[in-house]
Amino acid sequence: MNVKSLISSLRPTEKLFFGICVTLIVLSGLYILDALNKKYSVEMPMSGGTYTEGIVGYARFINPVLAFSDADKDLITLIYSGLLKASPEGKLVSDLAESWNVSEDGLTYTVTLKPNLVFHDNSPLTTDDIEFTIEKMRDQNIKSPKADIWNGVKVEKVNEREIKFILKKSYAPFLENLTFGVLPKHVWKDIEPQAFDVHILNREPIGSGPYKIKKVDVDTSGIYQSYRLESFEKYALKTPYIDQVIITFFKNEADALSAYKSGNIDAIGGISPEAATELKEDGYTVTATSLPRVFALFLNQSSAPVLTNKEVRKALNESVDRNHLINEVLKGWGSPEQGPIPEDLYNEPILSDASAATAQQAQRIQDTQKQLLDKGWKLGADNVLVKETKSGKKTETVRLSFSISTSNIPELKKTAEILKDTWTKLGADVTVQIFEPSDLTQKVIRPRKYDSLLFGNVIGRDLDLYPFWHSSERNDPGLNIALYTNIKADKALDTLRTASDESKRKEAFDVFNAEVANDIPAIFLYSPGYIYATSDSVKNIQLQNMTSISERFMNIDKWYIHTERIWKIFVQN
User: Fold this and answer.
1) Where are the beta strands (DSSP E) in 400-505?
2) Helix/strand number for the chain, H first, E second
3) Domain annotation for the chain: domains and CATH numbers
4) Which of 138, 165, 223, 515 has the fewest CB atoms within 10 Å, counting from its CB?
5) Under a CB-based contact definition with an 8 Å cutoff, are residues 531 and 286 in contact?
6) pLDDT-derived band at 348, boundaries 50, 70, 90
């Protein structure tokens, strides 16, 4: 009452002055409190929010035993968990596994599960489920794409939490095999192998991953249009911050991009270079990361004898302007490559501003053509290089002519045409043959019916090059599409598969790379970037060290939308 009486006794000018002073004191106090809050507090993620991503294509087998398409694998990464998982640091880390160790001889891997693991239906997850999942991968009636990785591996269950994997021979990258999603045995055990691929559980699965199915949207024709997932509170690592993840499927990229621009979805991955460039120019958040994949022209010397001439392979290789390919085909979203392993592995591609001048490219072609002319090649009347060779008493004329086979994919078609144009100027007669992807696999690659094949190798985190380059893999179903044979290279690849000592592995890598560089069994071109358009509202998306498209979700449990400030003394280390 005294303060009130005092204020009422003040003259108007004194009241104004008093009010200004009080206001300044209050504002100063608020400023000091805010400064103290910022100095002694940190912004922390908090739970909540919904994230929506668009995927081009549809999921059919959300089942780690049967998964085939990118959409399948994306959903598996969200819904299932494995013994180990990939991390943004480029390592394999714990998921369901509490610990693991490898015997001194590299033949026995012992894994111990975390206690009290459960599936989304709250049923216990034990080594029975691990053993069951591997049995289904091995079942020839199911025809799992992962069947081969378990050849020669004995699975020995010790108890409900401990399991052993015993190899016949040492295989250094084996831990990568332990990232497979685990099926719940109690749900799948009574389903016959013949019905495995048609069961509803392939489209409405139960896993143990960071997210579980809350709702599915199915159209009148039975096609699944979207999945609404909710965070799994009992996930082996921790409950994800984002409450809900919605995956929406689109028929094509154009529809997905339209939904992204209109704000109906927060992100879209794997977009084309043209779309990425347009989005970036319009101010959208677009990022790219490298994947361990290399596109190259693999040379089948058995089909095209002219390619047995090393000077021809060398000239073809040296006349290629890789920066031009990246600018024209990938719009800068990629890295030039000179060997079977990406040189910029795990580095984000940078938009290339390097575009070799026409004069420089013309000089490059002129120089490589001169190398051939110096080796006895001559330009014929049709401007195609020819060379006379003697075999006994017979003289044969070899013509620099071969075909390029590739898939009906815009980037590959454009690459093939640029290569053809380059080598036509060099003096080669090049024919481009385009096939639909399924026909390319069945009618061209498997029977090895091509002179040269424009294709890509996707290498895993373990950088196991054996399937792609060992001479034992030359024939189908092997992946040695260059039909490469080299004893030294084979020995180096064998060492890479068995040696755990990093110095020995590096030495073997160096030997292998040197042999391939000398032999030129393929013309390595580029590594495309994986391009991801996202929303600024979603934080902590980490794309580094991805080895597959689905690994963009490898740390989704740490993504967040909402934050709060907490005083540092209350933050748990």
Assistant:
1) 401-407, 429-435, 452-458
2) 15, 23
3) 50-266+535-570 (3.40.190.10), 293-529 (3.10.105.10)
4) 223
5) yes
6) very low
Output the six-digit token pair for 473.
Answer: 């893999």
Burial string for 264-277 (b: 16+ CB within 10 Å, else e) reads ebbbbbbbbbebbb
Kindly report, residue by residue over 33-91, the tens digit of the pLDDT.
Answer: 666 666 666 678 899 999 999 999 999 999 999 998 999 999 999 999 999 999 998 89
CA-CA distance, 179 to 82, in Å (whole number)? 5
Two tokens, residue 374: 């110096």
**How far apart (Å, rounded) are the C-alpha atoms in residues 212 and 458?**
29
Tallying the residues shown for the chain, one arrives at: 573
Cβ pair 123, 189 in contact under 8 A = no
Cα distances (angstroms) measured from residue 174 to each of 10, 102, 282: 86, 10, 45
> Beta strand pairing status for 429-435 and 401-407?
parallel
Instruction: Please work out, in degrees rounded to the nearest 5, the angle formed at the alpha carbon of residue 458 by the alpha carbons of 172 and 441.
Output: 120
- Greater confidence (349 vs 286) lies with 286
Q: Is 7 left (phi over 0), alpha (psi -120 to 50) or beta?
A: alpha
- The DSSP secondary-structure symbol of 445 reads I
* Residue 415 main-chain phi, psi, to 5 deg: -60, -45
Predicted TM-score of the model (pTM):
0.84
DSSP 393: T
Among 127-131, 167-171, 437-441, 460-464, the minimum mean pLDDT is found in 460-464
- One-letter amino acid at 69 equals S
**Residue 520: how many other CB atoms lie within 10 Å:** 19
**For residue 521, cis peptide bond before it (omega within 30 degrees of 0):** no
The angle that helices 358-374 and 310-318 make with each other, rounded to 10 degrees, is 170
Per-residue pLDDT reduced to its tens digit, 90-105: 899 999 999 999 999 9
Written in H, E and C, the secondary structure of 26-87 is HHHHHHHHHHHHHHHEEEEEECCCEEEEEEECCCCCCCCCCCCCHHHHHHHHHHCCCCEEEC
Task: Report how far apart, in Å, the C-alpha atoms of 19 and of each of 3, 14, 193, 549, 551 are.
Answer: 13, 9, 83, 63, 60
Nearest by Cα to 148 from 135, 137, 156, 158 = 137
Longest dimension (CA), the chain: 128
The structure tokens listed for 538 are 């979603």
Residues 6+ positions from 361 with CB-CB distance below 8 Å: 321, 324, 422
H/E element, 250: strand 244-250
Q: Which residues contact 50 (CB under 8 A, 6 or more apart)?
A: 242, 243, 244, 245, 246, 561
- Residue 275 tokens read as 């779309």
CA 334, distance to chain mean position in Å, is 14
Strand partners, 563: 45
pLDDT at position 172, please?
A: 86
Q: Which CA distances in Å does 349 have to 65, 334, 335, 418?
A: 33, 5, 6, 22
| For helices 253-261 and 273-281, angle between their N-to-C axes, nearest 10 degrees | 20
Which amino acid, one-letter code, is at 175?
A: L
The pair of structure tokens assigned to 283 is 């101010």
Burial class (CB in 10 A: 0-12, 13-18, 19+), 428: buried
Q: How many C-beta neighbours within 10 Å does residue 370 have? A: 12
Tell me the pairing of strands 108-113 and 162-167: antiparallel
